[in-house]
Amino acid sequence: MRKDWTVLLFLLFFCGLVRAEIKFNEGDRVLLYGNSFIGRMQQNGFFEAALQLANPKKRIELRSLAWTGDELGYRLRPERYVNHLKKLLDQWSADHVILGFGLYESFAGDSGIERFKADLNGYLDEMKRRHPAARMILLSPIANEDLNHPHYPDPARRNKEIKSYVDEMSLIAESRKIQFIDLFDFSKAQYASHEKSLTDNGVHLNSYGHELIAGKISKNILGDRIYNGINKGRIGSVARAVSRKAQYVSTIVRPVNTVLYFGVRGRANEYNAEIPRYHELIKRSDERIHAMVSDRTLDFDSSPLTLEPLFEREPAKLPSPEQMLKSFKVADGYEVNLFASEKEFPELRNPEQIAFDSLGRLWVVTMPSFPGTIPGDVPQDKVIILVDTNRDGRADKSTIFADHLTVPDGLAFHEDGVIISHQPRLVFMKDSDGDGRADYQKEMLRGIDVTDAHHGGMIAMGPLGHVMFCDGVFHRSQLETPHGITRGVDATTYRFDLRKGTVEREYQTLTPNPWKITWDRWGNLFQMYGDGFVQDSNAIPWTPFGIYHPFKRAISIAYGKGSAACVISSPNFPEEYQQGMASAVLLRKCFVSISKHTAGGAYYKASDRLDVLSSPDPIFRPVDIAFGFDGAMYVSDFCTRIIGHAQNSMRDPRWDPYTGRVWRIVHKGKPTVKDWPKIEGASVAQLLDLLKHPQNLVRDHARRKLRSVDGIVPDLDRWLAGELSDANLLEGLWVLHDQGQVRENHLKRLLGSPDQRIRAAATSLIRFQESDLKNPMSLLKKMASDQHPRVRTEVIHTVSYLQKKDQEYASILGQVNVSDDQELKTVLEDAGHGTASGQGPEVPVLSRPEDSKIKSWLLSAGNDVERYFVFGGSVGKGGSMRTFVKSPSARRATLSIKHSYVKVFLNGVPVIASANWWSSDWNVQVDLVEGLNQIEVLYVSGRGAQGHAPVYLFDPLGRKFTDLEVPATEKEIKMMAATYKKDIGQDDNAIRVSAVPNQLAFSPAEIRLRAGKKIILTFDNPDLQIHNLVIVQPGSAERVGQLADQMAQDSDALERQFVPDSNDVIWSTSLVNGKGTFQGEFNVPKVPGKYPFICSFPGHWRVMKGVMVVYD
């Protein structure tokens, strides 16, 4: 009997296990999904190399569909991407699927585990439906390595969070009989047993870390016997071949210029001509890999894989540099000469961003591939260094620093090297041996979108040592950091804090295509946009994700389309233009101009424009401007007959990839500098003295060199204790900040400076040093009443960022003295969007069931009367509409709508906020509650006429819900409306309104009451913050809100509940603490109309508001 039980237990145990080893068949294909862990693993190559070497005759194929920043329930993709994905899946059927998620989902902590479990189960269902015959393998995330980094998240806390998610993954895998490979415990053990770190930043493995993890995964998949039999000495060589193929695969999965291949500007002829070439490159790469694992004598051949040319390009017949010089119109008092051209330096082709290093050498980013390298061609984009060795104003030496780049669009000097934007990455490069060529590189960031090659902008490093970079329209970026994911959609500028490893959305705007970034000597940030607008970015507050600044907000210059802008700081140019703005126009009229730039009010404004250089020949394409140590202005000239790839084919023969010039402009009234300060090799004392130099370029490089000095802080403190101007003191505080040091006594001195530009700069520093200041709120409150509007603008700007950390900062907005300053009012309005995201998480939807369209709606077309309508034909445009769905349980759903100017709310919570011509296709994840749910769609005004758009609601797998009740008749929808009203505490005698936790919002945002009724109003506050509800007269919300803001100065404001003594106030609750409730009687006004209600706590009313519709 005991023997029978033993056999039975053995069989039960064995049947419950998932067989670990995979027996591959000939021609098997493995698809991989996940975040950048998968992409980096394939790029490393060791994992696939092991699989191929273990199966030398099987001709296995691996294809990664991983996407940097992907989470199970949040996967941004360019518009129309699913059409391309479907074609890839048609060619890439799967026999095995490997999934790698969980790390970034775990940042949600314990509160996110239930959502994660639902998302993982849903995703596995989707994979099963997409690949029904495939074997699934689920990888856990790795552990967070402890690098003893002062600014990274606590590894112990993070590993506790990750472990909770790994445990749930293991249980789900076991329940589904899916092979689960635990990399968490394995990586923790490896970290402990190795002296050297295995990650670059705690979450991204370095090369050796990848080798160890690849071995673990391979061993679990292949089994000990087969894995141990692999010739380990061959893995490295095969891995290099795998890495090359991985680059081709990642490029076809996420092509440069998606927008032209299959996006909103998609051209089928270009897609059909070029995408098959990527498939051919992948095929040839696989053939080389298979040959290498079958024949031990074959090593990796590093010679590039090339295809037959797509077409033969003849060099364009463009005017010579001498002819162009004759065509130029030069302003009186100025002269121009050729600094460099393709004639002397053939590698100078289509120059883009330019910048001077500390030796006075001009670095040039070239992009002859523009709009992008033809698949099968060797990339020709480069970074070159031009040197004027005898300082006569002409380059006489050129060195190729980096070659074979992919659409490089910018560079920024780092204290140890240079950071290059090498789409879709930021890469640090270094010349270690002094030969002028990069011999070391390290990836710093990936996930920057490449949907449109010329929408990446240029990068720059600011006074605090932060790197700024950009996205243009059509882009969808997901950036992985040790702190989590940062996402951006369309025109967005980011701040990358290298010291902390954080990436922050600096601002989002409807002004398309951000380009060159530049700073003046007081740290004011300006940016050129593609439409030719220079934006005063310190007047552009932070807004939540998906909330964009309007087109042309805070614009100081609007001379014409271009990409170049540079603050003028030159010993050669006229004094009256110092700290002014140089800019260039490259379309239609092509010219370079200078302007004075001053902030008499809230915004900087340009004046006294002077076009210093222009040409009637449109091949003159001035794309960037830089001032050299000599004081001259240098202009990079892209040199091409055509410039827009939206208007012209990517392979139009008129593109000229062989020509490029750099022009040099000097003012004849002052000499250029021949002997500029020595920065490289200077002592600390000399570098500190250079912080007093009048030229921005000198101070920028002095700051950069000081950042690299170990133990610099005591020297800085001694220097700061000396006799310094406020401007010098500001420079010192900037350097100290990069050392992680704060000197509050010096900061307070600058906050009291007689120069408003210094006071504004010091106010800006509060944002970055807030956690180390004793009472930053009191400092900001003091500056909120500064006499100069520019300083008050900076208070608003700073508070807009700090309110993300603590929403009490928003109360300071109410204390800013705006008086009748319309510009300041606009800045304040832009900062008043709260902190809640304007849209829900998106996922790509392969198919949208047509029968999931919700047809029955109640439409309100700009009046108080709702009418019933059914989607079928045209139903007009504008107004708002609402409908209801009844769910038998709480569940995740996908809400889909195609419209550019729309706000969508689910149960009063915003899930889509679009006022953007460039984006229209929305597929967001929403959470239905059990019972009735209200969907509201508000159409907002915008560019172009767009009618009412249908809404689709389906499950996360793209299937119609079979148990969801939706109204089909007018009677049904009106019954649902009445029931919903009752469910949320509304009837003829009572109504209930709630604060939305963490969102500075009311739910519902609209209530409808019969005129003259006496009702009971209940206000619930489940938030952590204090709130009230104040009903006011029509059109008086701003007036009452401003009065409430002014009460912040009153000692009895809390006793008065922050409710102003005003005839505009109809009724109010008291202040309700978090988790509290207020209930009171209220007489509805007898006059029909729309009555606003607000939370009048200082600063809240700008965001937290709704409307009471009173009807007869």
| Topology, number of strands | 51
Tertiary shape: globular
Helical run tally: 24
The whole-angstrom Rg is 31 Å
Largest sheet, described in full? 6 strands, antiparallel
Q: Widest sheet: strand order?
A: 35-34-36-41-38-39
Question: What structural class do you assign from the helix and strand content?
Answer: alpha+beta
- CATH class category label of the largest domain: Mainly Beta
Keywords, separated by commas or semicolons:
1112 residues, alpha+beta, Rossmann fold, Neuraminidase, 5 domains, six-stranded antiparallel β-sheet, five-stranded parallel β-sheet, 26% helix, globular, disordered N terminus
Topology diagram in text:
Blueprint: H1 2-16, E1 29-34, H2 36-44, H3 46-54, E2 61-64, H4 81-91, E3 96-100, H5 113-130, E4 135-139, H6 155-175, E5 179-181, H7 183-193, H8 207-222, H9 224-228, H10 235-253, H11 258-261, H12 268-294, H13 321-327, E6 329-330, E7 334-341, E8 351-356, E9 362-366, E10 381-387, E11 397-405, E12 408-414, E13 417-422, E14 425-430, E15 440-446, E16 460-461, E17 466-471, E18 476-481, E19 484-489, E20 492-497, E21 502-508, E22 514-519, E23 525-529, E24 533-536, E25 555-558, E26 565-567, E27 581-587, E28 589-598, E29 605-615, E30 622-627, E31 633-637, E32 661-667, H14 684-690, H15 696-707, H16 713-720, H17 726-738, H18 744-751, H19 756-769, H20 776-783, H21 789-802, H22 822-830, E33 853-854, E34 856-860, E35 866-870, E36 880-887, E37 891-898, E38 901-906, E39 909-915, E40 921-928, E41 931-939, E42 951-954, H23 970-983, E43 990-996, E44 1001-1003, E45 1006-1010, E46 1014-1021, E47 1030-1032, H24 1037-1046, E48 1065-1068, E49 1076-1083, E50 1089-1094, E51 1105-1111
Parallel strand pairs: 1-2, 1-3, 3-4, 4-5, 43-46, 45-51
Antiparallel strand pairs: 6-29, 7-32, 8-9, 9-10, 10-11, 12-13, 13-14, 14-15, 16-17, 17-20, 18-19, 20-21, 22-23, 23-24, 24-25, 26-27, 27-28, 28-29, 30-31, 31-32, 33-42, 34-35, 34-36, 36-41, 37-40, 37-42, 38-39, 38-41, 43-44, 46-49, 47-48, 47-50, 50-51
Helix pairs in contact: 2-10, 3-8, 3-10, 5-6, 7-8, 10-12, 14-15, 15-17, 16-17, 17-18, 17-19, 18-19, 19-21
